[in-house]
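Protocol step 4 of 6.
Sequence for Hypervirulence associated protein TUDOR domain-containing protein (Brevundimonas aurantiaca) entered exactly as in the expression construct, tag removed. Do not edit the line below.
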Amino acid sequence: MSDKTFKAGDKVKWDHSQGVTTGKVVKKVTSETRIKGHKVAASEDNPEYIVESAKTGARAAHRPSELKKA
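Step 5 output, structure tokens:
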């Protein structure tokens, strides 16, 4: 489990195929869910965060290790 924790509204950045993207945390996910048709295999021991791009408004799930405070 990662020691990185975020809360809804935190400004974060992450690497993307077009470079670094900034945005905000929408929510923490601790159970299996789907986003844009993709399975997110989150659990209490391995949470993921739904983040929203500041530029496009697109949402995606990321592991805590992929996110950095912006």
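Step 6, annotate. Residues 11-69 form one domain.
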